């Protein structure tokens, strides 16, 4: 079995790269290869252009922060943080000064004399973070460092790590399966699927232009609606048609005449981009099956043809179970994927007939 396959990733200086993907997709394996805890069966790991594929972990100038804090239980917080410096043989006074500086950064100054067992989960995680910070490494590698924290603490620690990254200009490779962490913390996301990179891009790029059905499904809450459809032309307009849907894709003109006969596609549209309209002549016709109250927003779950579609908007949406509604979305909010490969199709208003054929990216 191959856990990580043909991955090509370039991490720029100062970048906060998030490796995102479902459980078992190979995130930790990839991070451990970067850290030197696992040797790849093929390929190379480069740091600042130097080949470190066979360099032992302790000589890589990378600091790793794990999900489990791995603190020394018999050492005080201060000595836990200072541990990497003692190994380097720094003087006591120098170590104390460095520990004090880093402890202040992560708000641990008052707790330096405590033992790890006398700390909360969030405080322990900050000690682990401080121990990485004190080394002033070339890059930080973090594997789900927040997953043991409760929701509120996760949100505040998330913000702290992001702020630290900005302040220090540090390079971070951060593993998570949590899309909110990825969207809020990353300067760039690499989405992994079964050991391969499905897409890399800024959070906005992967959210707004998912390269595949897999990415479209992975990001967003609820995830993007995906519907089977077939392309056809009505007059000069390019349309996607399926059970209970017939949607204009926003392309008109003689260029598309006959260009795309009956191509099978997956039509995608995010729940927040669907608007409720009268059923007559609407792009999508649907029946509401349930309405969920999220506090600020509401989500209406609907059936259209044989598919499920969700609609998200500020509460109240004004919908009740059983309502028959029309739904519409602006053409720029529609996504097309190849029905077979699941890859995104690019369709642009055409200058000439040859440009009309959707191309797979
Ligand atoms: N030491 C190992 N020996 C054999 N297979 C392994 C080993 N470690 C991980 N795997 C397998 O490799 C694949 C990737 O595992 P990995 O731990 O990298 O996933 P992950 O993306 O970090 O998942 P999670 O989000 O659950 O932590 C999985 O199918 C896993 O079962
Ligand atoms: Mg993992």
UniProtKB/TrEMBL annotation:
Start and end residues of each ABC transporter domain: 1-219
Signal listed as a keyword: no
GO molecular function: ATP binding
Gene3D superfamilies: 2.40.50.100, Nucleic acid-binding proteins, P-loop containing nucleotide triphosphate hydrolases
Coiled coil: none
InterPro entries hit by this protein: AAA+_ATPase, ABC_transporter-like_ATP-bd, ABC_transporter-like_CS, ABC_transpr_MalK-like, ABC_transpr_MalK/UgpC-like, Mo/tungstate-bd_C_term_dom, NA-bd_OB-fold, P-loop_NTPase
Keyword tags: ATP-binding, Cell membrane, Membrane, Nucleotide-binding, Translocase, Transport
Pfam families documented for this protein: ABC_tran, TOBE_2
Domain of life: Bacteria
Keyword Nucleotide-binding: yes
PANTHER family: MALTODEXTRIN IMPORT ATP-BINDING PROTEIN MSMX, TREHALOSE IMPORT ATP-BINDING PROTEIN SUGC
Entry protein name: Sn-glycerol-3-phosphate import ATP-binding protein UgpC
Species this protein is from: Actinomadura vinacea
